[in-house]
Specification:
By secondary structure, the chain is of the alpha+beta class. The chain contains 9 helices and 4 strands, in the order ααβααβαααβαβα. It has a 4-stranded antiparallel β-sheet. α1 (about 5-10) crosses α7, α2 crosses α7 (about 125-150) and α5 (about 90-100) packs antiparallel against α6 (about 105-120). The chain is globular, with a radius of gyration of 19 Å.
């Protein structure tokens, strides 16, 4: 468990083994998502959406679509993290809330709404739209993982799942892109690997014109 953000960054592991005897309450799950929602996003559109899979039968359904990875069912909750390709449609409402909160005036909100509309109208390539929502949803997922570590929990992100199958099985509309799944719960300590070594700064950092890594 790490209560300091910098400690959590260095402490967090991608867990595979979870204590099946320790559930999370609805309030605890919602608290984790509240931290995920603090992540940045383009124009503050907040593209991330979450499905918390807690029912055992639903977990089994997700597990069958996730290469039968045990952590899907063993974790207290497995999130399906989505990116909304039409999230920008809510921007006038979101910025209206900012105006009411005194963050800025309506003229600034209108400027940002128009800017976002122009930005997204130029996204004629579906791949560019997907890239945008995947980036934003990934920021939110990282926030959730760090929040989990700070609360003494572990998490295991997964890209190994049948995206189309998950979309159909969980009645997810086409506007949403399944970005990843994320198992969260208490660790089964003895069965998880310790944190693996990372590349060094010297191996990964270049300045200005850069170099060949």
């Amino acid at each position: 468990m790490s209560t300091n953000t910098l400690d959590s960054i260095k402490h967090r592991v991608s867990a595979n083994a979870f204590d099946t005897a320790k559930p999370l309450s609805k309030a605890e799950i919602e608290d984790l998502v509240s931290y995920a929602l603090e992540a940045p996003s383009s124009f503050d559109i907040q593209h991330a959406r979450f499905i918390a899979v807690v029912d055992q039968a639903q977990k089994e359904k997700l597990k069958a679509l996730s290469w039968n990875q045990a952590k899907v069912t063993d974790a207290a909750v497995t999130f399906i993290i989505l990116g909304d390709t039409l999230a920008h449609e809510k921007l006038p409402d979101l910025l209206g809330r900012a105006v009411k909160a005194g963050v800025f005036e309506q003229g600034v909100a209108d400027y940002l709404v128009n800017g976002a509309a122009g930005f997204y109208s130029n996204y004629t390539n579906e791949r560019l739209v997907r890239d945008e929502v995947i980036r934003s949803a990934s920021f939110a997922a990282m926030n959730l993982m760090l929040a989990a570590d700070a609360k003494g929990l572990v998490s295991g992100p997964m890209i190994g799942f049948d995206s189309a199958g998950v979309q159909k099985a969980f009645n997810i509309p086409e506007r949403y892109v399944p970005v990843m799944t994320l198992a969260v719960g208490y660790a089964k300590e003895a069965d998880n690997w310790p944190r693996k070594p990372r590349l060094t700064v010297a191996e990964t950092l270049a300045y200005d014109e850069g170099k060949v890594f």
